Task: inverse folding
């Protein structure tokens, strides 16, 4: 084709595209005009309310934007977020309805940048049959039997490794320590990587760069956090791939239960090499960031609630005393006795809101509470807004583990509590997360007293993080046998 004709075509194409853009928006506008959509503010063209919605705010609050929108428009409103028309829900029953109808009326739909970085085969972005297959692998790996026999002793071993390294009266970042703990635990269980090995430490540092990209703007230019994260992703995958090759060469069978996730996926699943790589990377991500933040938050909340620390010490002291002399480590019966501890964990997740909302898409036109919910729109169930709603929880901004005591208000609290999501995509690692926190708290309260070395607060960016890394100082309270 001659250059002249090409130029002519370009000249025609541009106005055609602009016309198409306006036509599509006009049709959309006309259609939505006829519908009884949830109410909305004005927002900016194209970018809508995204920046206002994502503006950092205290993790223990819903943020000014959300508060103002709820008070003006109610618990279900519409907005323009992440470049798409969106319905935002702070309504507990609607959130439950959305999660329960995954794959029927709604579908998991994370922004493209998340898939770009976690991988196109990441379990978090997969839907349908492939999601089900990957979910089965994850659930098998964290089954009740494995939790009792294998993961409980592993969690305790990694807890002790971290706590024993702490020096009295010398400030350190509790958030960093929590991340080290959960990363090493996952690396060991996913790929049998030992915490003290330089290779594991190198991978951990690579992972920190990777994480900064997951939560940054998806700008792929040299030097941006997203660009650096994509490079880290390649480096991390190279390590996992090497482990995979070693495993394929390995002749000897591992003991039952001692099999790591890599070995298990190679032997028992029909996934391709590329799919296994993305699955392992996304489990490392899902199982590391969330529970480490939950641990940092519980250390933070307890520091200002001595009554809860005292009750925890009594519970764990009792478990410790009942153990027969010389009996090593915690067992499942010990874990089951940690009732108050579970209330502390619930309250931490309610008030701290590690995962504040999830991304979904509407699969077909429907109505809810008189509103039209159009097919193709994005929909965000915001758990944090329910967890901090004063019509659901009394004094929602107070850390009060006793609200989970068995009575009618605890039942209502539990029904509206969704820190792990729900429905067919309910967190596959929720039981492991609870176990990690309970075992960590057991040894923490028996061994140490702690205080903030300087004031700090957790912020939602919307991922939750302590601005200064939660600097604390610890003091031994007695020589525990650990
Ligand atoms: C306190 C800690 C944790 C919290 C608050 C949490 C929260 C969540 C939430 C809200 C989801 C649902 C996402 C969605 O619906 O789009 C989820 C999914 C998931 N979580 Fe967790 N999580 C935690 C710990 C863990 C741990 C320790 C693991 C272990 C590997 C894990 C593995 C997963 C996986 C594999 C999924 C995807 C499930 C699926 O799509 O079927 N999580 N988590």
Result:
């Amino acid at each position: 084709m001659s250059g002249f004709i090409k130029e002519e075509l370009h000249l025609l194409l541009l106005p055609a595209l602009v016309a198409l853009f306006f036509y599509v928006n006009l049709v959309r506008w006309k259609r939505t005009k006829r519908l009884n959509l949830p109410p909305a503010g004005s927002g900016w063209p194209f970018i809508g309310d995204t920046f206002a919605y994502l503006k950092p705010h205290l993790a223990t609050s819903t943020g000014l934007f959300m508060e103002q929108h709820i008070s003006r428009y109610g618990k279900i409103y519409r907005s323009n977020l992440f470049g798409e028309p969106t319905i935002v829900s702070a309504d507990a029953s609607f959130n439950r309805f959305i999660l329960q109808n995954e794959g029927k009326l709604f579908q998991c739909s994370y922004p493209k940048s998340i898939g770009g970085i976690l991988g196109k085969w990441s379990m978090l972005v997969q839907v349908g049959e492939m999601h089900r297959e990957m979910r089965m692998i994850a659930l098998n790996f964290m089954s009740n039997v494995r939790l009792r026999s294998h993961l409980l002793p592993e969690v305790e071993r990694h807890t002790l490794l971290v706590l024993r390294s702490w020096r009295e009266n010398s400030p350190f970042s509790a958030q960093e320590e929590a991340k080290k703990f959960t990363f090493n635990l996952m690396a060991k269980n996913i790929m049998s990587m030992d915490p003290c090995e330089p290779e594991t430490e190198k991978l951990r540092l690579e992972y920190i760069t990777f994480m900064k990209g997951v939560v940054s703007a998806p700008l792929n230019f040299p030097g941006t956090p997203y660009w650096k994260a994509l490079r880290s992703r390649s480096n991390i995958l190279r390590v996992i791939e090497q482990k995979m090759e070693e495993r394929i060469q390995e002749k000897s069978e591992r003991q039952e239960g001692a099999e790591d996730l890599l070995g298990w996926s190679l032997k028992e699943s029909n996934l391709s090499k590329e799919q296994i790589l993305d699955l392992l990377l996304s489990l490392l991500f899902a199982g590391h960031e969330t529970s480490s933040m939950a641990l940092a938050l519980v250390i933070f909340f307890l520091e200002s609630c001595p009554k809860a620390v005292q009750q925890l010490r009594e519970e764990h002291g009792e478990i410790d005393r009942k153990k027969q002399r010389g009996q090593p480590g915690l067992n499942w019966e010990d874990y089951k006795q940690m009732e108050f501890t579970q209330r502390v964990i619930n309250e931490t997740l309610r008030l701290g809101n590690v995962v504040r909302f999830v991304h979904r898409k509407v699969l077909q036109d429907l109505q809810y509470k008189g509103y039209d919910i159009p097919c193709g729109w994005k929909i965000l169930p915001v758990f944090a807004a329910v967890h901090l709603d004063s019509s659901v929880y009394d004094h929602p901004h107070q850390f009060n583990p006793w609200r989970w005591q068995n009575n009618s208000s605890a039942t209502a609290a539990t029904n509206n509590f969704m820190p792990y999501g729900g429905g067919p995509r309910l967190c596959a690692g929720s039981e492991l997360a609870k176990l990690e926190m309970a075992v960590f708290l057991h040894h923490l309260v028996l061994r140490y007293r702690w205080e903030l070395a300087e004031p700090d607060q957790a912020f939602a960016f919307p991922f939750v993080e302590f601005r200064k890394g939660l600097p604390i100082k610890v003091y031994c309270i007695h020589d525990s046998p650990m």
Remarks:
- The chain has one domain: 35-476.
